[in-house]
Design brief:
Layout lengths: L1 E6 L4 H13 L6 E6 L2 H5 L8 E4 L2 E5 L5 H7 L1
Parallel strand pairs: 1-2
Antiparallel strand pairs: 1-3, 3-4
């Protein structure tokens, strides 16, 4: 199972990115979603701007709210 990690402190943008990820994978059971809100853990990803999304530990985007379609492209 692949892991999608949403990196952010819980701001509205982070919540929207989480909602978009949930929508993108709603019919796909191959993914596990994890929210990471601890700033020290976020820093380990070398992310400066949130929200960010990582797939299997690799940051794919930071500082923007990806659309559902864009998330599907990443997957």
């Amino acid at each position: 199972m692949k892991k999608i990690q949403i990196l952010g402190t819980g701001c509205p943008k982070c919540k929207k990115l989480y909602e978009n990820v949930a929508e993108a994978i709603k019919d796909n059971n191959d993914y596990e979603v994890e929210k990471i809100t601890d700033i020290m853990k976020i820093m380990k990803f070398d992310v400066i701007v949130t929200p960010a999304i990582a797939i299997d530990g690799e940051v794919k985007s930071s500082g923007e709210i990806l659309s559902v379609d864009k998330i599907k492209e990443l997957l």
